[in-house]
Amino acid sequence: xxxxxxxxxxxxxxxxxxxxxxxxxxxxxxxxxxxxxxxxxxxxxxxxxxxxxxxxxxxxxxxxxxxxxxxxxxxxxxxxxxxxxxxxxxxxxxxxxxxxxxxxxxxxxxxxxxxxxxxxxxxxxxxxxxxxxxxxxxxxxxxxxxxxxxxxxxxxxxxxxxxxxxxxxxxxxxxxxxxxxxxxxxxxxxxxxxxxxxxxxxxxxxxxxxxxxxxxxxxxxxxxxxxxxxxxxxxxxxxxxxxxxxxxxxxxxxxxxxxx
Length: 260
Ligand code: COA
Known about the structure:
Layout: E1 6-11, E2 14-19, H1 30-44, E3 51-56, E4 61-63, H2 77-86, H3 89-95, E5 100-104, E6 107-109, H4 111-117, E7 121-125, E8 129-131, H5 145-153, H6 155-164, E9 168-169, H7 170-176, E10 181-183, H8 188-200, H9 204-218, H10 222-236, H11 240-250
Parallel strand pairs: 2-3, 3-5, 4-6, 5-7, 6-8, 7-10
Antiparallel strand pairs: 1-2, 8-9
Helix pairs in contact: 1-3, 5-6, 9-10
């Protein structure tokens, strides 16, 4: 598929999606939402892609959020709802079995931070600027921010950020638990790529099931989550890769995974 607002590349099992509207700090318009939705929809069933890396072109921003130029027209609520329903890329991301890594340089504001929050692991530059700034435009986060941020950092701090629209630096975001790693800006992409390739080198089915157990389990009471863990770990006992992993260990060599 040909994209105009994002770039999509696959190398060694790692798919890199780059938000590519640097002139407007990678703000999201309708075309970008459609392309992200199509791209993630394809990834849900793509077994060749083991890890997804998401970043922003240009270095000044991951994404400055929704394209504010779309806000100056009045919107009919039903039309808005129906249009958004077709481009719920963040919900499609939730269905992706692959780990998704966000590499955040510069601004991740509004929908841009919500996109990062829909990823599994976030690596940010120490001087990145993160915030759910919607309140300053008389709206609230509509891409999962009011739900995902408090689940990550707790109710009080999430409310403080959402109600004030404040921005935090990458190093502060790390301290708060919004991002999992913080590095100098020049190292964000290489750190994210290194992590992506490390994950892509793991046994493919185990990698997916590990994510599934954590993500599904978090939505459930502990006993049900433990049941999912048991079921998935039992299933993994049937793979060829499990035998290969044990043999390679005993033979003191690197395992060769087949994904079966
Ligand atoms: N939508 C549309 N255009 C945007 C944008 C957005 N969300 N964010 C930035 N841009 C555009 C600017 O209009 C500007 O375009 P121009 O060169 O044609 O004037 C360009 O990107 C560069 O941004 P600029 O504001 O000049 O850079 P800055 O360094 O002074 O400020 C921000 C950067 C991110 C602080 C500022 O652009 C901003 O506050 N953006 C809006 C963020 C926001 O509210 N997002 C949530 C939307 S719900």
